[in-house]
Specification:
The longest helix is centred in the first third of the chain and has 34 residues, at 60-93. A hairpin with a 3-residue loop joins β1 and β2. The chain has twelve helices and two strands. Strands 1-2 form a two-stranded antiparallel sheet. The chain is 74% helix and 2% strand.
């Protein structure tokens, strides 16, 4: 006979074992690897040292990589919030069948391979022979081709394109709790549309915006394919830096340090932001 105390553990046991084996053990092994020594001729030596950590914290090159990573992630998050929040509100006010059609359009970027999508941006804006640059040059709108490849602007645009749907879905889910008739009632009582948006819709949407911001920031900061293709070797971020250390220079311990620091920074940001979201939800639904 299974007791009530052990039943939850038995039910959660398989998922817990999978989590430990797939997530916790690889993370622990990566942390241990970061304390090993690496030599060009000796390879990885299983000795406990702090040289890799000292190198990362002492060299301003690594600080620049992490600063660029989080600068891009913050910019993508802000732009996604500015674009995604109005989209979610419009989607919330739509009626069928247009709501389903527009939702499919919003989710469109997620249905395309990240490599194909990023190469599409490169073909549109990638250089002097790119479609958009050629069109703008012939129309006389610009005098020289727009710089897109190997720039932070290009990485931000490409990442925003695919991450906006996450913001839209998060805000839309929050707005689903609002009865559209409340907006109409406020207007019938003399409130302007700006007042309705500022005092009724926005406070209800804030938890969704914060939740979407957490998702977008985490995905933007840890993105690899888009920064690797658009940014190239000239514009590295933390994920591409770790990749280069692992597979190009073969300095696995140093790459492990970069990976662990990126994971720790994202965990701190997500935990802190999640507390803000929980407080906001508690205030809205008190």
């Amino acid at each position: 006979m299974i007791s009530r105390a052990t039943a939850p553990w038995l039910l959660a046991g398989p998922a817990l074992l999978l989590f430990v084996g797939v997530v916790l053990i690889p993370i622990a092994m990566t942390v241990l690897l970061s304390f090993h020594r690496w030599g060009q001729f000796t390879g990885i030596e299983p000795v406990f040292i702090l040289d890799n950590w000292k190198e990362v914290f002492a060299d301003p090159y690594f600080a620049e990589m992490f600063l660029r990573t989080f600068r891009i992630a913050v910019a993508v998050t802000l732009i996604s919030a500015l674009i995604g929040t109005p989209e979610a509100y419009v989607l919330h006010r739509m009626k069928s069948p247009w709501k389903g059609i527009c939702l499919l359009i919003v989710l469109g970027p997620l249905l395309i391979s990240v490599v194909a999508r990023t190469l599409g941006w490169a073909l549109l804006f990638g250089g002097e022979t790119a479609i958009v640059n050629q069109a703008l040059l012939r129309l006389g709108v610009i005098s020289e081709p727009l710089r897109f490849m190997f720039t932070e602007t290009g990485v931000i645009i490409a990442l925003t394109h695919v991450l906006v749907p996450f913001m839209v879905l998060s805000v839309w889910a929050a707005l689903q709790r609002i009865d559209p008739r409340v907006d109409d009632a406020a207007v019938s009582l003399g409130a302007s549309r700006a007042t309705v948006l500022g005092r009724i819709v926005l406070p209800q949407a804030v938890p969704g915006i914060l939740g979407g911001a957490i998702i977008v920031f985490a995905l933007a900061a840890s993105a690899f394919a888009t920064p690797a293709i658009i940014g190239g070797r000239r514009l590295k971020v933390a994920s591409t830096l770790a990749y280069d250390e692992f597979l190009n220079t073969l300095n696995w311990p140093l790459g492990a340090v970069v990976a662990v620091l990126l994971l720790a920074a994202l965990a701190l940001v997500i935990i802190g932001a999640n507390r803000i979201v929980e407080r906001r939800f508690a205030q809205v639904f008190e």
